[in-house]
Predict the 3D structure of the following.
Amino acid sequence: MTQQQLKYVCLITAALALPLVVHSRYWMHVIIMAAMYMLLAFSVDLIYGYAGQINLGQAGFYAIGAYTTALLMLRLNLS
């Protein structure tokens, strides 16, 4: 196993063990939101930084997901 693969294995193991360590629903929500924003930032960095292309698809999908979530919470009382 190379050093790069070992880093990925450690990262995945830490992510899977996180719910066992964090018992507060608030902090779990904060961690999940931070992870979502990091994934969005990584995708934008990949498209803009490395490829040099302008793409608003990520923002569009993020907005559709936020709007759908808001409607489900308001109309169907899902949380």
